[in-house]
Amino acid sequence: MRETTEQEAFWRGEFGDAYVDRNDGAALVAANTALFAKALARVGRLDSLIEFGTNRGLNLVALNRLLPHCRLTGVEINEKAQAAAAALGIGEIWNGSLFDYPVAEPFDLALIKGVLIHLAPELLPQAYAKLYAASRRYILIAEYYNPSPVEVPYRGHTGKLFKRDFAGEMLDRYPFLRLVDYGFAYRRDPVFPADDITWFLLEKPA
What CATH architecture applies to the domain 6-203? Predict the structure, then answer.
């Protein structure tokens, strides 16, 4: 059996539970809807989508509004968050680590938002491989960006938040990937503030 990483234990426990409680509300869903509307503007029909790190399902709520006919699947390590997302009734929510999720068949889009930043750098190659394997065509990465790797203190903790060029690393690792589009959601946006998230839409070769 694979040994649980420090980050996985952190997000499975009390800190992860508290994150579920403080991240909720209509304003977050509205901001997510605006972000995904821009990020997916150049994508055609999507019949299936998987999100790694679903938390309580606010991203899936936004995506369900934009893509009402798309089959949604979520992967969430925290039991409290998984239960909240499953209770929405808009998709299948698998409880466990993204590293353990069994990709039986690829999805039209593989999404990760605000998750790679919380992984130890040595785990990123495995995360990239999971994203690539889970995608039939598109990969959407939405994270904190920095041109070079840097660690940032996170709510009094060290080793829990990292910024880097995640999309650039995927493009280097998988040279056949193509950058389709990218954008930025500013925390001071007067209508849809979104915590300074930079998103990148990548496409796999046909």
Answer: 3-Layer(aba) Sandwich (3.40)
